[in-house]
Amino acid sequence: KPWDNERLLTILRTHSELARALRKGERLEAENKMLREDGGNGDRPLLIAESAAMQPVLELIKHVGPSDANVLITGENGTGKEVVARTLHALSPRASKPMVAVNAGALAEGTFESELFGHVRGAYTDAKTDRVGRFELADGGTLFLDEIANVPVNLQPKLLRVLETGEFERVGSSQTRRVDVRVLSATNANLKDEAGSGRFRQDLFFRLNTVEIHLPPLRERPEDIAALAEHFLRRHSQRYRKHLRGFDPT
User: What is the pTM of this model?
Assistant: First the structure.
């Protein structure tokens, strides 16, 4: 005292803006940390990505994760597509609901429809009981369709329908069911080329590819090799109860 009102207001505004900037910086740092760490609960996937090539991927995951958009994850085998899918689910409002994974490449064409949509008793010879499909199991949560390029062409219209309307029927049933599911899919194929050749429906490709996340192979991000090696060393040390201290630098 005595104080100058104009100077006091300027100081208060400056401090308020600084506090907001600090809070924003802390929030962004926490979000980035959350993408990289397990969090101690054993549920959150561990996404190890320290290289410059992976920073745009982390940013995209951070922005897309909390949304409800369908995401197509592309990249070579072994680039971590399922880890990214689980990270997207963990960041979403659906995190408390199930994430159900389906490897489309491992399903026989004759069982594909039943696996996804379920069936009722008597639908075919071996259908002795009703079966709940993966879409129903994932209701309220996330369905991860790995190797999506392997979905049979004759079943793609049914997959498109459930993506557009949330509606489907179990095999052998006329009762329409409805689900609320976010679909994440992954492939090592070029779906755009597959659609152009007629092996994959173009409208289904567009429905799945609301956002695309492409993962570069490890040879394009060698900075991550050491961090990945240390991660797997710790994991296997715990699993096999071995005291392993590190790697020979040579």
Answer: 0.78
